[in-house]
């Protein structure tokens, strides 16, 4: 009984204090008084994304197909196979052209990705799987050069840099629709009285299966 009374008393004190607590909001323009502003160097360490369509954010550097082949064998082949064909349950990266409209579509870098700089961005930020961001910028350029060579869109004897990567046209560049076709994001989508012609019954399958009555029945 004593413990219950103490609990009730504590709740009563808190209830009395709530209005005063609600009125002591910190001013929006004042700092909280802890932490420090991030420096340009600290921000630069996180600001490493590369934009796909125009390659904005690509760093200086260069790489070769020959160097990329060795790097891929050492850093990537355990998951993606020696020829980027995929290993185990890890995805394949090369091949699959012409399969996207088939019963067995294969979404690879070669068959699906529209922009080459995206490949650099992903490898630089997330690969290799066990040690992301451990590759140098030149090493990433080399791996990308080898993969693009495997996809037959970059010559074996040509050095790859930011300017060259921006010029690469991926095989499926034109395989995407312009805009978002989903009706919930189109402001001009018709919502009422949209039918131009009356509906037409093309089958009486439901009636023949007995799941829809052919005439009204009395209750």
UniProtKB/TrEMBL annotation:
Keyword Transcription applies: no
Pfam families assigned: Cytochrom_C (PF00034)
Residues spanning the signal sequence: 1-22
Key words, A-Z: Heme, Iron, Metal-binding, Signal
Origin: domain of life: Bacteria
Transmembrane segment boundaries: none
Keyword Cytoplasm: no
Ranges of residues in domain Cytochrome c: 63-151
SUPFAM superfamilies: Cytochrome c
Record protein name field: C-type cytochrome
The species this protein was found in: Ferrovibrio xuzhouensis
């Amino acid at each position: 009984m004593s413990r219950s009374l103490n609990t009730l008393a504590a709740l009563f004190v808190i209830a009395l204090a709530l209005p005063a607590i609600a009125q002591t909001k910190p001013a929006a323009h004042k700092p909280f008084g802890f932490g420090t502003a991030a420096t340009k160097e600290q921000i630069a360490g996180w600001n490493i994304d590369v934009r796909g369509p125009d390659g904005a954010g690509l760093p200086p550097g260069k790489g070769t197909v020959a160097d990329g082949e060795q790097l891929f064998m050492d850093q990537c082949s355990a998951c993606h196979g020696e020829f980027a064909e995929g290993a185990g349950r890890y995805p394949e990266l090369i091949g699959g052209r012409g399969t996207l409209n088939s019963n067995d579509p294969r979404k690879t870098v070669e068959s699906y990705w529209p922009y080459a700089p995206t490949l650099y961005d992903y490898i630089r930020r997330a690969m290799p799987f066990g040690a992301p961001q451990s590759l140098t910028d030149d090493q990433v350029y080399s791996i990308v050069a080898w993969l693009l060579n495997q996809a037959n869109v970059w010559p074996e004897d040509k050095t790859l840099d930011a300017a060259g990567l921006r010029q690469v046209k991926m095989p499926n560049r034109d395989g995407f629709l312009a805009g978002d076709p989903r009706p919930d994001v189109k402001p001009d989508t018709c919502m009422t009285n949209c039918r131009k012609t009356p509906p037409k019954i093309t089958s009486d399958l439901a009636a023949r299966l007995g799941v829809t009555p052919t005439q009204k029945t009395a209750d």
